[in-house]
Amino acid sequence: MHVVLDTNVVVSGLLSETGAPGWILDLALAGELELSLDDRILAEYREVLLRPELALPEGAVQEFLGAIERLARRVTARPWPQALPDPDDEPFLTVAGAAGAVLVTGNLRHFPAAKRGGVQVLSPREFLDLLRAVDREEIEARAEARAESRAEYFSASEEE
Q1: Whole-angstrom distance, CA of residue 109 vs CA of residue 123
Q2: Which domains does the chain have, with CATH numbers?
Q3: pLDDT at site 140
Q4: How far is CA 125 from the centre of its chain?
Q5: 3-class SS at 133?
Q6: Would you call 121 helix, strand, or coil by DSSP?
Q7: CB contact set of 70 (below 8 Å; sequence gap of 6+)
Q8: 149 class by beta-carbon count within 10 Å (0-12 exposed, 13-18 middle, 19+ buried)
Q9: Which of the 8 DSSP states describes residue 120?
Q10: H/E element, 2
Q11: Would you tell me the crossing angle of helices 20-29 and 7-15 to the nearest 10 degrees?
């Protein structure tokens, strides 16, 4: 699934691996999610993660950013046609729109529904719920296909 992670999700995920943002980061780093970004987003990640008040070890931050750069899909996005409450949030919405990705943020109010332009914007918890629903549907579809295949196999065996 294509996803754009707002910086607040990345920070929360690095500070606490047990919450929804931590699980989402783990999935992204494991390659289970296709992360999309551009240079503006990567620069914001770098600037925020290296703030002294977060007390994240610089080496760990650089290692994380290197992994993100290797895994993420770079997207070229056009300016967003509608102003957002915080102009610094625009890159996240433009990249999500250009990539056909879900934008995951802890600040839903920064992305008013009327200004999303069809981009799905979810909280980390809502995103995990969506993943569970998709996984459940995929598992059910696979089970149904296996059952059909099994039924075809046994009916063919009985005819012989």
Answers
A1: 10
A2: 2-123 (3.40.50.1010)
A3: 57
A4: 12
A5: helix
A6: strand
A7: none
A8: exposed
A9: -
A10: strand 2-5
A11: 100
Tokens of 109: 């109010």
Cα dihedral: 23, 44, 97, 76 (round 10): -120
Of 105, 45, 107, 51, residue with least CA distance to 72:
45
The maximal CA–CA distance of the chain, rounded, in angstroms, is 74
Q: Which two tokens stand for residue 35?
A: 């992360």
Give residue-wise pLDDT tens across range 107-146: 999 999 999 999 999 999 999 999 888 776 664 565 465 5
Q: Which two tokens stand for residue 117?
A: 């332009």
* Nearest-angstrom CA–CA distance, 44 and 35: 15
SS3 state of residue 73:
strand
Q: Give CA separation, 51 vs 42, 48, 57, 114, 137, in Å.
A: 15, 5, 10, 33, 41
pTM: 0.83
